[in-house]
Amino acid sequence: MRVYSPQDIEFLDRQALEAIQLLRLKKVIAVALDTPFYKERLSGVGIEHPKDLKSLDDLNKIPFTTKDDLRDTYPYGLLSVNKKEVVRMHASSGTTGKPTVIFYDRDDLNRWTHLALRSLRACGCGPIDVFQNMMTYGLFTGGLGLHYGAEDLGMFVIPSSGGNTQRQLLLMKDFGTTVVHATPSYMLHLYAQMDNMGVKLSDLNLHKALIGAEPHSEDLRRKIETLFGIDAYNSYGLSEMNGPSVAFECVEKSGMHLWEDAYRLEIVDRHSLEAVEDGVVGELVLTNLIRHASPILRYRTKDLTRILTGTCACGRTSRRIDRIMGRTDDMLIINGVNVFPSQIEEVVMKIPEAGNNYRIVVRKKGTLDVLIVELEVGPDILSDDTRDLYALKGRLVEALKASISIKPIVEFHEPGQLPVQEGKAIRVVDERGNLY
Ligand code: DLL
Q: At a CB cut-off of 8 Å and minimum separation 6, what does 251 contact?
């Protein structure tokens, strides 16, 4: 096992934690100044040298970095070490335009690996666990991102990567997998396929699922927990901030600890971009304090969340963020009304008859927008009396209308009818333009 900084770092008091942040930030500023992009940005606010940064508050002077900045500097504009120091790259999963690429040197990877180890330990994983990593290995950070941390923790790692559900189930059964890492939508797909593939819950030894990489509601988490009879822990990350292990739930499941010695955390109002009070929802802005090959300062994640106030019963002092409530760019405007897909999921997942997949479709009918919520429901419901089916539809339409102020069309589908993605689920099909 490698030697790491003591576990104490997770339990530091605020003052000690901020002292570490400042030290690490200065180092990151030093490497950022080696890139023409940040040299110009930083000198524009009077930072020519790390010592010009007197306190953490000085970070607020630095302009935000956006995804467009990363695209504009593609491919090497934000590389701040000699290319021969680079040992790996990852790229964002964006479907349009140039990808955003991130480089890591050896030490960057070691520091990230250590965060993965901490995250896994925080949610109760250990050397006795058999860890089946169903996140795709490749440019996407989901697979490799937890892999080495799990190995360093001494877990038995099965790098099964994404897809091939039949093989996943076989591996789970034959090797007694205790922990899986997957998107929440894939967990539901896995469950739906068990029957077809003749696998019963009693054939498995599953205790935990680490779920992340896509938005999901508390009800969806509970559904996964109930279906499999396991604990599911929320895991948040993004490639611009390394990947998974930016924030992770501990065994208390009361919000995700954002590892503050590694990431400087800000929540800003999505319109004014001014800092909001703790507890208020806004856009998450992050500065990576531990990566030197690709420094990124004050990155606007577009993810909406809030800082949870109070302390966590686990004793870790890194502040917790709430589950991601949506993205500033996934808000749908339907006939002028703002709707977040997460509002729809919340309602749909409360209906006990809901199956394992749903989709939101928006299309034009004449000059008006129409919202269609497509939902898989159990086969028994579809064969029920049509009056019951209508009644259920009616209840769902009313519940949705109460939540989003729009009356949707609800369509029921048989299990397995809606498309399934290997990686992140595509929940919204906006036929007026965008995919989410
Ligand atoms: O999704 C990294 C990751 C892999 C995280 C595995 C967790 C587990 P990207 O492909 O760059 O990286 O996508 C990042 O996905 O800005 C969020 O919008 C969304 N996202 C990630 N985790 C969560 C989560 C990885 N737990 C983008 N809840 C982020 C909600 C999430 N959204």
A: 122, 123, 124, 314
For residue 242, the CA-to-ligand 1 centroid distance in Å is 11
Domains and CATH numbers, the chain: 1-328 (3.40.50.12780), 332-435 (3.30.300.30)
Q: What are 328's two structure tokens?
A: 């500033």
CA-based nearest residue to 129, from 161, 154, 160, 148: 154
Q: Is residue 135 lining ligand 1, measured as CB closer than 6 Å?
A: yes
Angstrom CA distances, 346 to 105, 223, 342, stand at 41, 12, 6
Q: Which residues, other chains included, contact 33 with Cβ-Cβ below 8 Å and sequence gap of 6+? A: 39, 42, 47, 48, 49, 50
Contacts of 26 (CB under 8 A, 6+ apart): 50, 51, 53
Rounded-to-integer distance, Cα 102 and Cα 398, Å = 45
Ligand 1 centroid vs 213 CA: distance in angstroms?
3
User: Look-up: residue for tokens 């997949």?
Assistant: 357
For atom 9 of ligand 1, the residue with the nearest CA is 238
Is a pLDDT exceeding 80 seen at residue 5? no
Q: Is the pLDDT reported for residue 47 higher than 70?
A: yes
Give me the amino acid identity at 299. Y
| Confidence band of 36 (pLDDT split at 50, 70, 90) | very high
CA gap 136, 139 in Å, rounded: 9
pLDDT at res. 96? 55
Q: What is the pLDDT of residues 410-420, one digit of tens each?
A: 999 999 999 99
Task: State the pTM of this model.
Answer: 0.91
Which backbone phi and psi does 396 adopt, to 5 degrees?
A: -65, -45
Structure tokens at 112: 């990230």
Query: Which tokens hold the place of 115?
Result: 């965060």
Tens digits of residue pLDDT in 119-147: 999 999 999 999 999 999 999 999 999 99
- Angle in degrees, CA 234, 235, 236, rounded to 5: 125
Q: Please name which of 288, 291, 295 lies closest in space to residue 69, comparing C-alpha atoms.
A: 295
Ligand 1 neighbour 327 (Cβ under 6 A): yes
- pLDDT in the model for residue 4: 37
Distance 328 CA to ligand 1 centre (A): 14
In angstroms, what is the span from residue 24 Cα to ligand 1's centroid?
24
